[in-house]
Amino acid sequence: MPEETFHIPSVIFCSSQRSGSTMMVDDLSRLTGREQFKTHENFCRMIDEGLFERADWPEITTQLCSRITEEREGLFIENIMHDHAEIVSKKISPEKHDEYLSPFYHFFQNAVWVQVIRVDTFEQAISKYFAAQYGIWDKRQVSGKNYFDSVEYDFQKINEYFCWYRRCKEQWDTFFKQHAITPIVLYYEEAKDNYPDYLKPIFDEINLKLPTTIPKRRVKKLGNHKNLLFKEQFLSDLFDTKSLEIALELSNLKEMEHEYNNIKTSRSFKLASKLSSLYRTVTGK
After folding, report:
1. How far apart are CA 160 and CA 182, in angstroms?
2. CA distances from 247 to 10, 41, 110, 242, 259 (A)
3. What is the pLDDT of residue 134?
4. CB 196 within 8 A of CB 210
5. Which of 27, 132, 242, 265 could form a disulfide with 246 if both were Cys (CB 3.0 to 4.6 A apart)?
6. For residue 161, what pLDDT is reported?
7. Which ranges of the chain have pLDDT less than 50?
C-alpha cells in the first residue's frame, strides 16, 4: 500500500512553463546548499524516462526518497506543472483522482505550497514560442545576442500558448481553492529583479535563514530584442481580432495594469492607443 502522506519536508512549486519557476527553484536550491542544477523536477524526469508507465506508486516514492537521501538534502523541492500533477495524481490513486487532483494534494498535504505566476502572460507565451522553436530553454545553451533571429512570427501558435497559460493559472487557482490552501505566491516580475529577498517567505515557512554569503544566480533570462518585437505584433493582432472580448477576460486587473504601463510608451502609437482605451474601459479609470 502506498504511504498516505509524504513524510519528508517538502516545498512544491506549482507552475507553468516559462513562468520563471526553474529560476526560482534553482535559486532556492542554491541558497539551501544544493549544488546540482535542475535536480528538482523529479516527476517530470520520471515521466519522461517512462518510470510512471512501468512502476507502481510505492516504487516511485522509494526512488524519490532514495534520491533525496543520496543528495543528503532532507528537503524535497519539486517544480511541477498542472498536467504533470494530473499524471501523478492518477498514479497515486486512479480511483480517487478527480479534477481537483485530490490524491496529489493528500499525499503532499503537509508541504509548503508555492504558486508561481508570471503576470505578463503575453511575454510568457512569446517566451514559450521562441524556446519551443529551437528547444532552447536556458541561456547557457546559447551564445551571442542573435540566437532567435531566424524565428518567424506565427500568431496562431503564440495565441495557442497564450490561451493555454491562462487555463493553467485557472487550474491551479481551482486546486488551491478546493483544498483551502493559501499558497506563497511568487511573481516572476519580482523574482527576476529581487534575488534573493523574494524567497524570504519560503525561508520563513521552512524555518531557515537566508545565507550571509549569497551565491551568484545561475539561471538567466533567455529573451532578447526580438521578444519585444513579437510581443508588440501579437498584442496588435490580438486586440484587432478580439479587442474588448479579450480585455474583459483579463479579470486580473493587475495583469491589465501591468500591460498598460508596460506598453503605453511603445514605439507603436497605434498599439499604445488601443491599450490605453481598453485599460480605461476595463478599469473605469
Report:
1. 29
2. 38, 34, 38, 8, 11
3. 72
4. yes
5. 242
6. 92
7. 1-3, 36-38, 141-142, 243-244, 247-248, 251-253, 263-269, 282
| 45, three cell numbers | 524526469
Strand partners, 184: 114
- Rounded to two decimals, the pTM is 0.81
Q: Taking the CB of residue 19, how many other CB atoms lie within 10 A of it?
A: 28
- Residues 123 and 231: beta-carbon distance below 8 Å: yes
Angle at 58 between CA 97 and CA 116, to 5 degrees: 55
- How far apart are the C-alpha atoms of 192 and 103, rounded to whole Å? 33
Length of the chain: 285
Secondary structure (3-state) at 184: strand
- DSSP code string of 196-237: TGGGHHHHHHTT----SSPPPP-------HHHHHHHHHHHHH
Which one-letter amino acid corresponds to residue 78? E
Residue 13: the pLDDT is 96
Q: How far apart are the first and last CA of the chain?
A: 58
| Rounded CA separation 196/198 (Å) | 6
Please report the domains of the chain, with CATH numbers, ordered by start residue: 10-241 (3.40.50.300)
Per DSSP, the residues of 77-136 read: EEEEEHHHHHHHHHHH-TTT--TT-HHHHHHTTTSEEEEEE-S-HHHHHHHHHHHHHHT-
Closest listed residue to residue 99, CA positions, set 43, 15, 175, 181? 175
Q: Note the pLDDT of residue 251.
A: 43
* Residue 15 in grid coordinates: 507552475
**What three-state secondary structure class fits 78?**
strand
